[in-house]
Amino acid sequence: MLIFENIRVALSALNANKLRSFLTMIGITIGVTSVIVLVSIGQALESFVIAGFENIGSNLVVVFAPLAQPNSQLITLNEVNALSDVFRVPDALYVMPQDNMTRVVVANGVEYASRIEGVDVLYPVIFNRDVIAGRFFTQTDIDGIARVAILGQKMVDRFFTDTFPIGQTIRIGGVRFTVIGVLSTEGGEGLTTFLGGDADDIILVPITTAQTRLSGERVLTGERPVDFVAIQARSSDTVDAVAEQIRQTLREERNISFRDEDNFQVVTQSAILNTLNQITALLTLFLSLLAGISLIVGGIGIMNIMLVTVTERTREIGLRKATGAKNSDILLQFLTESMTLSVIGGGIGIAIAMGLAFLVTALVPDLDVSVRFSTILLVIAISMSIGVFFGAYPANRASKLNPIDALRYE
Description:
By secondary structure, the chain is α+β, with helices and mostly antiparallel strands. The chain is built from 14 helices and 12 strands.
């Protein structure tokens, strides 16, 4: 019952100085709101990334030449054929080369610098994308270097807002293409996004068309290079085996001795996901620590006001001690008042954070920002800890006042 009485007295004291109490709690409220919102956004981003990768699956391996590596060497179509050899890479189910580039696209009176991806017929299978209108490329389109294109949903919204896109003509880098299909919306950050940008803001063309009509790039040997190769393992259990088989095959094709390092890079989807999750977690932690500064500032404000409160109630403390109150009673009372300030400020911060989380979700529907119960419990514990830590000195000072000197205080 003593604790409830202390809380009642604390609330009465806070009510007697409403404005001062409110201004004291602002620091805690801002800090709690910032921490919760940033942690919740970080958790939402992590879930968003994971969902996008899970749409594709966990058995994808990508091979490319890192631009930052001095001795890197572009992958060629001949090397893609070697990777497609079932005897050399037996655990690979599908192998697809891809070229990425940016070209000016003119369609329906709109001009835009668009991302173009040269792919083959395996694209929908490897990246789990469907065609919601029209059709996808056939092997005849690939072999015949056909000038046909498939649009991502954002490209449709940009070029053909009021027109059915199938059968329409667009110009890519001055070359005429016929739209034959529209891709489904990916709706998440998958590996396609990691490799080039927004997976819905793209135009697909046959890779042979991209290499001959839009690029024409060749390496020193005269072979046509590709930006990367996407390889789907037979199962998630064989991903590591596929990665090693790819590495050995390319080293053999390039005559790389055992002393030399690879001049290419092989990464698995799980490795990319782990890296992205680590980056997201570190960013969330860093931003939360910055927001935590507000909590410290709020705690200092609580200590300052509690010191003022102790001074104002010196005679009250002396009277309570003269009537039998122990030092521990005084200590507990002022600690309770400090914690009450902190917890109320934290409660207001939680309410504001939940409102902001709802607002962010409404503005960005793909990002499901929600305040988890575990986060609320953690913040409540932090608020109480701040109340105890920063209220300890004023409470201890009040408990050690001499009752005679306190009663004489003017």
